[in-house]
Structure prediction request, 399 residues.
Amino acid sequence: MTPKLRTRAIEALNDFVIETPSWGFADTGTRFGKFFQDAAAIDLGDKLSDAGHVHALTGCCPTVAVHVLWDFKAGEDPKAVAKLARKHGVKIGSINPNLFQDQDYKWGSFGHNDPAVRQRALDHCLDSVAIMQATGSEYLSLWFADGTNYPGQGSIRARKGYFEETLKALHQKIGPKQTMLVEYKPFEPAFYATDVADWGMAYLLSKKAGPRAKVLVDTGHHYAAQNIEQIVAWLLDEDMLGGFHFNDRRYADDDLTLGSIDPYQVFRIFHEIHFFAADRGKAPKIAYMIDQSHNEKPKIEATIQTVVMAQELFAKAALVDHDALRRAQAKNNVVDAELELKKAFFTDVSPALAAWRKANQLAADPLAEHRRSGYQKTAAADRRARRKALGLTQGGGYA
Ligand code: PSV
Ligand code: MN
Prediction:
């Protein structure tokens, strides 16, 4: 790696932060069951402690995403939560309202045909905005499980209208420094017509809601053949890309660790972002977040692995020679253009990562440092006992 490339990679790393999800530290599973891990977080205190530990090791995860229903007990004081996060060396990041688990939402939330249910969903979002104000969070991250399972079940156009109306009402209540992120997903749990199924729908709804609504791209929420980096490039060009939920997958929304299946896909996404920044002369403001479910890997190890992979791919993508790429593109030189990307992808950025970690007083290898720290063993002993005392021994399923 030349000194010039090393500097470029280090500069990219200086600008890169990624948010960890509170739920990535907790026991999760599939609809068929849940298997407990001794060291998995039981409550928000554990999750913030784990997130703080990951940030201390990696130096680039200063915020934690929370899911209101899963993380905030009734009557919980968000200011106390923010204080607890600070104690663990992190801040509360995006606030995720839960619009999919309450019995009232059987037929939808913002897309429900009953105005009382839509109002209830809106009120829950407004409570989430109040949490944002108390915690100093910048992002309200919205994902809707809404949709229909059978042809004819609901009016597709009426449901679109309910979404437009309710999102607009919510947008009016968010602060000038807050952003509403609208996430899309093609299917699951709705299997006929999901109300916000793709980036075009999320784009349209965000545009209609107002200037502080942007699209959130969850990398697992696409059909297998879809070109995600093209979507990213279009959203960037329209100033409508708000953030990412990163994860990897082989089939659908598998929520596997980032880059475990296709690191080149993530590299290509990052390349579009760096290329856009180079063309505009300014890096876009994007909320990079992780949304994964660590069902088999130890939670903290999976999170560290993800963060390190994200840093590595972000640094590699920063090495693409944009001038050479533009020249090759201008001449329609397909081979050289592609090789510019491949050259960067195959560059070993470990010297830059090592230098960046050293400059930030971090261990050279965050995963090895975590294993050395004994954190996992202590957490496992403590949480095993607490889990037993709480009677949390069966993971359940739906059969
Ligand atoms: C839905 O699949 C989703 O991607 C949304 O972002 C939820 O908030 C999250 O997963 C829950 O894990
Ligand atoms: Mn997501």
